[in-house]
Amino acid sequence: MSQNTIVLVSRNAVDYLFAEQVSKNLGVRFAQADSKDKLHEILCANMGCFILWDYDSVLEKRSEDARLNRDLMEYFEKHRVWHRVFAISSHPLRDSIVPGNFHLFSKYLLRNFSLEATRVYSYIIHNILLPNPFETHSAGIDDLQIQKSRITNSARKVATLEALSIILEKKTIPKRIATSIIRATDELIINGVFDSPIDMKGKRYKHDLERGEDFELVKKEEVELEIISTQSFLQISVTDFFGSLQKEDFIPLLAKNFQKQEVSGPGESGKSDRGLGLYQILNSGLSMQVLIEPGKRTKMSLVVPWVANVRELRDSFRFFCLRMKN
Fold first, then answer.
1. Residues 194 and 305 both lie in one domain
2. Which H, E and C letters describe 222-237, residue by residue?
3. What is the pTM of this model?
4. What single-letter DSSP state applies at residue 15?
5. Which domain holds residue 27?
6. pLDDT means over runs of 10, the chain (326 residues)
7. Number of structural domains found in the chain
């Protein structure tokens, strides 16, 4: 990490303090760019740069930033550096995603620069900068407790969700939030077991099976569940080993309006559309990070703070990030 640099493109003084603190947390350099030329100069001198960009200046059509933003977007496109850019915004992600600019929102931070949020955002940025992103590295969070298990039979999903429910109950997570976490985890497991497996021709051969059906999973079909618990947050990761999810799928999946599912609760039978629920997951206040290694694996992680009520959840950190690794 010593060769990396956090570069801020923002006129917001709070953003400056935030980016400076993240840099300190990660032990990397910090720089600020107020023009395309300045950004180019920094990027040329520091190959490991990571860019934090105030995208509200675009969403709110601030005239004083119009030229800079046009220059930046052209620069990001020309030099293909979108994978290094995190959009900082005070607007909900659901209000920002539009066809044509999703690559910008593949990394998104809701503007919340409390001490806890700064630590969590540093943890997320650190993981993205790694050669093997989204693996378990503390990045200043020293109290990680990690549990891993494998779902080897479709019916094990029920027991897995029950165990997670016990963990949430012990942590005294409010019932409404715990229900959102359980449903979100259920959705990710369903995606991994039923929607991710593809055959040699790319056909999703388990998609049409009843979601309550009981069958064994062969080695490649097994789904890994990882639970990381810290004093600040809970992270739940579900990994399939097909890597069949396409980046282009995220625009319709995340922008999809709420739809009623036949699967109304964990373990119940019925069918659901592929990916249905990702919109609801983010809209419920949970954060998500996604790693796609085409043909190898897809790792989808939920991150939620330990909170006492829904209001605290709304006021806590929130982010979304997608990383494609070829």
1. yes
2. CEEEEEEECCCEEEEE
3. 0.86
4. H
5. 4-129
6. 79 94 91 94 86 91 92 92 90 70 80 89 82 61 81 92 92 91 93 93 91 92 93 92 81 53 43 57 86 91 91 90 81
7. 2
